[in-house]
Amino acid sequence: MKAQVLQPASPKRVVKKPACQTAAPLIPPHPSLSELKASAKCCRACPLWKRATQTVFGAGLPEAKTILIGEQPGFDEDVAGEPFVGPAGKTLDKGLVAAGIRREEVYVTNVVKHFKWEPKGNQHLHKKPNASEIAACLPWLEAEIQVIKPTVIVCLGATAAQALLGRDFRVSQQRGQIVSSDLAPYVLATVHPASILRAPDRESRHREMEQFIKDLKKVARLISAR
Fold first, then answer.
1. Which ranges of the chain would DSSP assign to H, the alpha helix?
2. What backbone phi and psi angles, to 5 degrees, belong to 155?
3. Domain holding 137: CATH number?
4. Residue 136 lies in a domain
């Protein structure tokens, strides 16, 4: 009886996953803010555009000393095409006024430029963007920062802070602290104004608002010191 010859097993085929697509190829060379905004209208770097009404780009002065960065547009922003025009935007406006900062003198934007939501009846429920969606959209934010060259960058909430300052950054522990960064002379984080609205009771909302204003007053001092 002949001995059975064992054939070597065929090597498993390695299927390479496609590289994460980003908006980087859409960034014009040496762009202005208006050119960036025009290019972003056609962004398809991630699937979020399919459900969104439109791209919601940043808004404000090209020469603004301060950039305020949130997570993503909400329902009101998706409809209007402007950042921070809904309830969270009104809370932000109150905080800026109390801190002595004029809204028209800052630039406001978001890490993600399309509204991510899921349906629940007739409602559009906010859904947090995932890591790949943030990575896909981040070149727009980086380009905005490069064009404006702000003195102060304020990250509003964990998504913005972790996108720019690293996944280990904790707003709950490091809010209001100046962080060393190549992005701007002063970079700090505070809560997103939407979180103030989600506080469980009136007293909590008042307390959170007071702390938010305190953080913004620090921003005002940094602006005036330059």
1. 33-40, 75-80, 87-99, 131-148, 158-165, 171-174, 193-197, 202-225
2. -90, 120
3. 3.40.470.10
4. yes
Domain range for 221: 24-225
- What is the average per-residue pLDDT within 181-199? 97
Q: How far is CA 117 from CA 56, 72, 92, 125, 139, in A?
A: 14, 11, 22, 5, 22
Residue 65 lies in a domain: yes
pTM beyond cutoff 0.85: yes
DSSP code, position 62: T
In this structure, what are the phi and psi dihedrals at residue 125, rounded to the nearest 5 degrees? -85, 125
What pLDDT does 9 receive?
45
Look at the chain and report how many structural domains it folds into.
Answer: 1
Residue 87 tokens read as: 């309830």
Q: Per the domain annotation, does 57 fall within a domain?
A: yes
Assigned token pair, 48: 């979020």
